[in-house]
Each structure stands twice: as structure tokens, then as C-alpha cells.
Amino acid sequence: QVQPVESGGGLVQAGGSLRLSCAASGSRFSVTTMGWYRQAPGKERELVAAISSSSITYYANSVKGRFTISRDNAKNTAYLQMNSLKPEDTAVYYCNAVKYSTMWYPVGSWGQGTQVTVSS
After folding, report:
1. How far apart are CA 60 and CA 25, in angstroms?
2. How many other C-beta atoms lie within 10 A of the C-beta of residue 112?
3. Span 41-55, mean pLDDT?
């Protein structure tokens, strides 16, 4: 099972950029689809991006064109490059192993997350 540790969050002004990292333990990282979720105060956790073992990507409409998900299997790490950040991107960001049936759903353990705050 993949155990994630997220890092890279911080405070940034609107229009700025951040790069999040998800270091995952476990021997099956390279064959696991990984996703980045976020949870804003008072809102449900939502998937913003996912990347398959063959690097096929998915993006939520709210981040398409601004965020880029990638992975480095040699380092057991997934990344989320976030550009043109908006105040509404403010949330705690988490990564997790995911699968898709009729919708995406998490299948692994949750890490502690990393806080992203975008000021206007």
C-alpha cells in the first residue's frame, strides 16, 4: 500500500505558482494511479488531478490549463505544478492512490496534507 507524504505548500499571491510533492512509500508506486485532492474549509474533499502509471492525466475543470500533474517513478514521487493560482485554490492538498469506476475514488492512505493559501 502506498503511504504518501505531501510537501511544498505555502502562502502565495494570486497569479503565483507553487509545486507540491508527494513522496510515497511502498513498492507498488510505479503501477499505481496517483491523485491530488484538495479540501477547502467547509467543503468536501475533491479530486483535482490524477496520473496513471503510464502518465495518462486527468484534470478537474477548475484547474485545467493551470495545474500540471507529473510523476517520477524512480523517486516514488508525484508532483503538482500549480500556476496562475487563484484565492479559490486555497485548501489543504492531499495525494492518494486512486482508481476509476464510474467516478474517481481514493484507495490508499491519507497523508497529513499540505496547506496552500492564495492571497488576493
Report:
1. 26
2. 11
3. 96
